[in-house]
Amino acid sequence: MPHVRLILALHNHQPVGNFGSVFEEAYRTSYLPFLETIERYPKIPIAIHTSGPLLEWLADERPEYIERLKARAASGALEIIGGAFYEPILPMIPPRDRLGQIRTYRTHLEELFETSVRGLWLAERVWEQSLASAIVDAGAAYTILDDVHFERAGVAGDRLTGYYLTEDDGRLLRVFPASETLRYTMPFQEPHQTYLFLRSIAERRDGATVVFADDGEKFGAWPNTYNHVYTNGWLTHFCDMLEANRDWIEPVTPARVLEETLPEGKIYLPDGSYREMTEWALDLEPARMYRTGKGRLEHQDNPAAIKRFFRPGGFWRNFKIRYPETDEMYARMMLVSRRLETALGDANADPDYLEVARRELHRGQCNCPYWHGSFGGIYLPHLRGAIYRALISADVAIDDALGGRGDSPTAEAGDFNLDGRQEVRLDSQAISVFIRPAQGGHVYELDDRRVLTNLLATLERRPEIGHDAVRNPNGEGLPTSSQPVVLKQEGLERLLCYDRLPRKAFVDHFLRPDASLEQLVDGSDYDQGDFAAGAYLSRIRREPGRSSVVMERKGRAAGAMIRIRKTLSIAAGSTTLLAHYELEDLPAGTPLHFAVEINLAGMAGHAPDRLYEDPKGTALGMLDTRITLAETSGITLRDQWLDLAATLEWTTPAALWCFPIESVSLSEGGFERVYQSSAVVPHWTVLGDELGKWSTTISLTLNPAHASTNRETRLVGQIAAT
Questions:
Q1: How many domains does the chain have?
Q2: Could you count the other beta carbons within 10 Å of the beta carbon of residue 231?
Q3: Regarding predicted confidence, which is higher, 288 or 50?
Q4: Which residues span the domain enclosing 149?
Q5: pLDDT tens by residue, 251-267
Q6: Is 717 among the domain residues?
Q7: CB-facing half-sphere around the CA of 44: CA atoms within 13 A
Q8: Residue 650 CB neighbour total at 10 angstroms
Q9: Is the pTM of this model over 0.90?
Q10: Is 544 exposed, middle or buried (0-12, 13-18, 19+ CB in 10 A)?
Q11: 3-class DSSP state for residue 713?
Q12: Do 561 and 554 touch, CB atoms closer than 8 A?
């Protein structure tokens, strides 16, 4: 009788920074019931990869689950698959961190489960050929990719079975192709469909090995799957089907296949990831063109024969182009990684603090908020915040390893965001400020080092291909016509406003005289100047107890040519960033409508303990409130949960607008409204004095919202945990 081997491999993952309730819900609806079911079938071996963030949560909250996995592994019915500890996209991080993450996690898994770990789960199956040598050097023997990777290398049909050898720099890595057919049939179609698929392969290729490898969350945690998989018994029926056909279906682990079979051949795979991600990485118009072409393909004769030659052409690294915020996080991560590498070479550095820094750096490389597809990704503020929390924590630990940051603030120029132009970094013991003179003189990162928060982890509102479906939920706009359009809130179409300029701090505008709050909210073309995104000349100024960057630009403002000199500075012992504005060459007798936009993120929008307050401490509403004040000298954004109060004050009374930046993004459950940041916009009617000048100073002060945070106690606790 024809015979086929079947590998069942699950990838269970929750990202760094996800809410504890999400971990718990996924455990209750997916991880635990799957294990409870499969334990009734000791003759069906499986392979499981559990990501580091999830494993840490399980060790703290559900250690009994780990013991059950350990017992199954000891019986030979479970193979533990390794990976990089905190689930980074491996090509995104430096080679030193690739090796560090893989080796550290492999050692951790082998000690925890008392078993050997031979395989590596490649996050999001993002492959570049140079990974082969890194994976082998880190101690892994094999990885699993999608069959689409192999199709792009010319392997198709019945040859998409077993495993292949690939090579880089003389190192040989085994690579399994995972079946896209099984990825879409399990668990969404009845087990008989898998039976028929395996039967057809067995009849054509006796002894073939077929791989199912996909997210474990689809077995219960994805929307509408729990009842199907467990209440209605899909998983039980599936296992019963395998048991009833053991005479020709042989469930096996990847390690056993390596031991008992020879490779199908040798292959070199082109750079890429799974099919959907290569589409998500495309810009809007190419993505629309691709979908149009894909629709036409379905009407061709024998579309399957040419499908493997029809590909979106997207490339994962271009998420850093689609989302500049991704590039900012990436550049910040690279900066911390370089700092740590240098510190590791310092014989006087404290190794305990360096170990804290290493672990926090690796946490800050978790892939989920660096891109966006069919889940929240970069659109989720708490995930972006978690990345920055880890990176800031690593930066602080490096400082402490080297003896601490001195009392005097520092100023440094360099290409910190990897755009080929010079930025400026100002640092004190309490805050770090990153400024880009070449783009509007914006502050693009503002870290409170005490609460480990970047208040400028903002996100622009930009068009997404899924927004077509939000505007027309009864028409096309999603990858397949069979997938329903789910709108999790009403009125989402009214939020489809797009930003023309980055949502950062100290963005300089000259508005129309009749500009309104509504125009700023909906992204209208309200700016009559070229300062908001224009290049400023800059120079660093260092004085005793103070560091500054002085930026200057001559540009257009409502038809007039004027000059702005903007000086940003921090002082020793202070938690205040000062922005001093000097406007010169103002037109005589002609008022200008000048505004400074300051976006602040990292805080929740609609929560009773996150509030606006006026200078007297009177609450003005939650942070997703729209505010219009005719005249005020400042405002405070207070977040009790973060223990952070950001107070803005200006020396010249101003009118004030405040409004939330809210986006529409796709998650597993449908399209949803997501609060990103709060925009605070003081604005003035400016008339020059007899010399054509006008000036004001804006201060942004960061203080605890209530009790202070003891950073030293926190770091000692991190060292103890290590």
A1: 1
A2: 10
A3: 50
A4: 4-273
A5: 999 999 999 999 999 99
A6: no
A7: 23
A8: 20
A9: yes
A10: exposed
A11: helix
A12: yes
- Residue 87 belongs to some domain of the structure: yes
What is the spatial distance between Cα 624 and Cα 636, in angstroms, rounded to a whole number?
14
Contact 580, 699 (CB under 8 A): no
* Secondary-structure percent of the chain, ordered helix, strand, coil, rounded to 5: 35, 30, 35
CA–CA dist 481, 474 (Å, integer): 10
Share of the chain above pLDDT 90, in %: 82
Please tell me the least confidently modeled range out of 279-293, 543-557, 644-658.
279-293
115 phi and psi, to 5 degrees?
-150, 160
CATH number at residue 197: 3.20.110.20
Residue 232: inside a domain: yes
Tens digit of each residue's pLDDT (9 = 90 or more) over 571-601: 999 999 999 999 999 999 999 999 999 999 9
- How far apart are the C-alpha atoms of 496 and 284, rounded to whole Å? 15
The closest alpha carbon to 37, from 301, 195, 220, belongs to 220
Rg of the chain over all Cα atoms, to the nearest angstrom: 28
The pLDDT, as a whole number, for residue 309 is: 67
How far out from the chain centre does Cα 695 lie? Answer: 40
- Contacts for 26 with CB less than 8 Å, ≥ 6 apart: 14, 217, 221
Catalytically annotated residues? 124, 215
Distance CA 309, CA 510 (A): 51
Asked whether residue 150 is domain-assigned, the answer is yes
Give pLDDT, residue 314: 82
Give residue 19's pLDDT band: very low, low, confident or very high (50, 70, 90). Answer: very high
Residue-level pLDDT at 722: 39
Whole-number Å distance between alpha carbons of 456 and 15: 21
The contacts of residue 510 (CB under 8 Å, 6+ apart) are 527, 528, 529, 531, 557, 558, 592, 593, 594, 595
